[in-house]
Amino acid sequence: MVIRIAAVGDVHLDEDVVGRFRPALEELPECADVLLLAGDLTRHGTEAEARCVAEEFGGLSVPVVTVLGNHDHQCDQVPQVVKVLEDAGITVLEGNGVVLDCAGGRLGIAGVKGFGGGFAGRCASDFGEPEMKAFVRTTTDSADRLGAALRSLDCDMLVALTHYSPVPDTLAGEPLEIYPFLGSYQLGQAIDSAPTALAVHGHAHAGTERGTTPGGVRVRNVAHPVIKQAYSVFHVGDQLDTDQVSPIGQSGSQRSWS
Amino acid sequence: MTHHRDIGAGPPDEYVEAEIQRLLVEDPAVAEQGITVIRRERALVLYGEVESPHRREEILRRVSERFPDVPITSDIGVIRAQAPTEIEQLP
Ligand SMILES: [Fe+2]
Ligand SMILES: [Fe+2]
Questions:
Q1: Tell me, what CATH number does B73's domain have?
Q2: Binary contact (B31, A198; C-beta < 8 A)
């Protein structure tokens, strides 16, 4: 069983970008069963920018599933943005999931935007001022909803889709000081609470592609500035041509901070 | 006696850097979180990747407008958007 997943995040669309992705997107039906968008679809989260996203990523012959990013929240027009995307046939996840019938089996995707907080041993705590507690509880709620959504899906293969990162591995390249604003270990913990096959995120524009959760789930940062192509394609499954299999030991161990 | 900084010298470089970094994110005409400001001997250099040539020009324009006395150079790239040539197998 092999499911073919295309993914990109942080396309930050506005009028000046419309049309740039389209030629590559037209090739999707030949190489992927689904396209995942890992948030930051827009620059400021306006309805007008969402229409640019709908124009660029709507009407493709593969299903498109997305979460929103922090940029998509900037102008407080989330309901309008979601409506424009949904009207274009794009599935927007936030604390829920969807199951798609693919040629290789039923693909379950659970998604949340996620939030910051940092990683084990170097993270914010639910303690002190109300502002601090609100910050940490936002992440906890988000991670709880991701975990529940992942565990609720009846499918053959499970994928987690977030904007913020669930692991520090894929942030390598970002300044260490801003890690707490780029993700949270709690998202990783949620991903590890279910038999997740792959976790996809964006947000870390200067990060790196590959990582692994403490529970061994592969994590991929698909932020557009990181992958430097219209989308990445992953073939996930257990019957692969062994010649093409990349060695598993390579994932998540390289840390070259600049 | 305490030596005070010459008022005419302008704000220390670190505050200028911080202000530019904030401007890059908070100015609606820019809204970029992925641009790095690096202090070189002769100028501040902006590095990063954006989605269009228009955005690259806009960044330099807005920063120079706000800090006319700070020498700024930019080495910002426009991210390619071609279809991938390889897939990744995940067994
Ligand atoms: Fe982004
Ligand atoms: Fe983001």
A1: 3.30.1340.30
A2: no
